[in-house]
Amino acid sequence: MKLLRMYPLLLAAALPATALADPAIDLPALIECRQGVSEFVALAPIAADPLKAVALGWRALPQGNLFMNEYMLNTPVTVFGHTSDHIAMAGSSIMAILDLADPRPLAKALELETGYDADGKFMAGRELVSRDVNDARTGEALIESVILSVSNVKSHPGKTLAGCTYSLDLPAENEVPAPAAGATADTPPG
User: Fold this and answer.
1) What's the whole-model pTM score?
2) pLDDT tens-digit series, residues 8-59
3) Which residues pair with 112 in a beta bridge?
């Protein structure tokens, strides 16, 4: 199935303004995939404006990896049983950067499927949510997806990245999901 990935700023356009206005961001829940796309969208203004991150008590860090925006937290969070004051956002993902040299034990504890393990690079993940939703404004059929992942990256030796990817995807052209009863992009089913 080929899906078109929609990134946070596009996700924001698909949801009503009330989804963006909620200042209560549960960062540990977002990182641990305990929330949905509508909660993740609250981070879109932060990704677009680093001053909004400062207002939350996050300090933007120099970009050590061109694909991630990194932040130091004034107050550490506990995720997956580990404490971290260092997070990263990349596209539609939010991750904690953990002081774990080997990501494999965490991936095993989280029951993730190994996607790649060679040449010093490790990636594992598992899709936790895949459900049909409808755009609240247009009625367009979408697929909400929430994927938990653990990996390492050369730009951060001795660290493990653990977090969640939230996305709204358009179904493949030949595969349009049936309308979800009562499920909309701003109010996904419980």
Assistant:
1) 0.78
2) 333 433 433 333 333 578 999 999 999 999 899 888 888 778 788 888 889 9
3) none
Over residues 120-153, the pLDDT tens digits come to 999 999 999 999 998 888 889 999 999 999 999 9
Query: 77 and 84 in contact (C-beta within 8 Å)?
Result: yes
55: β partners: none
Cα 134 from Cα 152, distance rounded (Å):
35
20 token code pair: 């963006």
Q: Are 141 and 169 in contact (CB under 8 A)?
A: no
Contact 131, 122 (CB under 8 A): no
The pair of structure tokens assigned to 74 is 């004034």
CA distance 16 to 121: 39
- Is 119 exposed, middle or buried, given 0-12, 13-18 or 19+ CB atoms closer than 10 A? exposed
